[in-house]
Design a protein that fits this description.
The protein is of the alpha/beta class. The protein has 2 domains: 2-116, NAD(P)-binding Rossmann-like Domain (Rossmann fold); 131-225, Regulator of K+ conductance, C-terminal domain (Alpha-Beta Plaits). It contains 7 helices and 12 strands. The protein has helices at 10-21, 55-61, 76-88, 102-110, 118-130, 162-165, 203-213; strands at residues 2-6, 25-30, 46-49, 68-71, 94-98, 114-116, 135-136, 147-152, 171-178, 181-184, 196-201, 222-225. The strands form 2 sheets. It has a 6-stranded parallel beta sheet, sandwiched between helices. Strands 7-12-8-11-9-10 form a 6-stranded mixed beta sheet. Strand 9 (171-178) and strand 10 form a beta hairpin.
Length: 226
């Protein structure tokens, strides 16, 4: 796949190296040539000096044939403008923009731009730790309507069956990690201590799900995952 990343800060550079290591074709755009040092000596992708809101710069960077486009500069306006150019002038199908101002997120999603808001994510994580919540908050499915959670089972929960956890239309266990093995869950699977289950949970079932796995004095992590 071919990906174009605008912004070579810590996030942009890390993402570029991850995608490149997975053998994707990656191009990074930044107006500061020194920023490309973050990519290291082993980065196999391309770099393009220029601003991500310049049509000609994006054209040279390969936006016309990109499968995905990411805007992670330090400015919300620049990220959105770059994303709109990629969407409307180059027809890129998959676009993600980083947005620091939470109220803007929904507006841009309505324009067809998927957004990630580190402000909201960070605030929720701090809140969870401050309040000793038994889970950590990160982005959820469907703009908050469905949550993806990962739970590690205690010894006291050994022998629990997937069928005992699931609720039709409310809770679905998608996968189980057992040691180095990951497998798709079935209703008859019996869980062991240390197993990590990955669940999709509707909002109305979230409190019951958390309560089930936070009901003893032992601290067990429940993570909301993307």
């Amino acid at each position: 796949m071919k990906y174009l990343i605008v912004g070579c800060g810590r996030v942009g550079a890390t993402l570029a190296k991850l995608l490149s290591a997975e053998a994707h074709d990656v191009t990074v755009v930044d107006e500061n040539p020194a920023a490309f040092k973050r990519l290291g000596n082993h980065f196999s992708g391309r770099v393009e000096v220029g601003t991500g809101i310049d049509y000609d710069v994006l054209l040279r960077a390969g936006a016309a044939t990109a499968d995905g486009f990411v805007a992670v500069t330090d400015g919300d306006n620049r990220n959105v403008m770059a994303a709109l150019i990629a969407q409307r002038m180059f027809g890129v199908k998959k676009i993600v923009a980083r947005i620091y101002d939470p109220p803007r997120g929904q507006l841009y999603r309505e324009l067809g731009i998927e957004t990630v808001c580190p402000t909201t994510i960070g605030a929720k994580i701090v809140r969870d730790k401050l309040m000793h919540m038994p889970y950590e908050s990160v982005p959820s499915f469907d703009f908050g309507k469905l949550s993806s959670l990962a739970v590690t089972l205690r010894p006291s929960e050994a022998g629990l069956r997937i069928a005992e956890i699931e609720k039709p239309g409310m809770i679905r266990i998608a996968a189980v990690r057992r040691g180095v093995r990951v497998f798709v869950a079935s209703l008859e699977d019996v869980l062991s201590p240390g197993d990590e289950i990955n669940a999709i949970v509707a909002p109305e079932a979230l409190s019951d799900f958390v309560a089930r796995f936070a009901s003893t004095t032992q601290d067990v992590p429940i993570k909301l995952t993307a």
